[in-house]
Sequence to fold (287 residues):
Amino acid sequence: MGRRAVGWSPGHLSGYFRRIGGDSPASTGSTGAGVVIREGVTAVVELSDVPQVVVSQRTPEGVLSVVATTSPPVEYAMERLGVSARVTTRTDLPIGAGFGLSAAALLATLTALDHLFSLGLGRWGVAALAHEAEIVHRTGLGDVAACQGGGFDCRKGAGIDGEITRIPAEGEPISALTFGPISTPAVLSSADVLTRVERAYPGRCPRDIPDFFRLSRAFAEQSGFLTPLVREALSACDRAGIPASMTMLGQGIFARGCGADEVLAPFGQVLPLQVAGAGFSPGEDAP
Fold:
């Protein structure tokens, strides 16, 4: 057993979703559709007598800075496993802005912990515990399930064992921007919000990528999540004929098509993303 290990997970953009309540974290989650993106989270874990978590983010200028020294879901996962490590997560994406980074951090960390401590979790065990931590801490519903693979995903059942269909699109460019975070725990705790979500939910999987954007946009409009800034940017995409929708849950948008970055540029820092071809990676020794 080495002293350090690394894991990686893609991020996830959710286009539309519906909460599914269960009698346990394993049977609780969501159905819906989204897109798995190559950009996500890298986690480095090191042997430590005291559990520690450092969350770091790289700015567009390339500066890596610490944004938090705690992560209740990651700490919960370590306690469940009975292991102690120093965990450092790193991402180039905005945190709390609808890029599925809570799920990605858990998946990346748990793959590395599984390798470092020879726990024998495997992919299913890693995903199961990551999903449990998300549900317990109300930081997500379906991102862990989606990040088991790549492409445009449609989750037909709750939890990591629910049926998922995927539209392969590895390397497909997606342009995104964010105006700031939305509190996922607050949304998932609101009965009124979840009622609106239920009514807006389209009730089917997308037939193709254009259909995904149509369904996602209708959901964003009908669910009541749109803010004035997001609506203004979406209107600009409409005028340019660019398919776009709101990130769920984040105050931002994602768009597809030639010229999307130019249309979004006046509204802020555009994030160039790509559709992932696969899900999270097994842990391995870190130098």
About this structure: The two ends are 13 Å apart (CA to CA). The chain has a mean pLDDT of 93. The chain has nine helices and twelve strands.
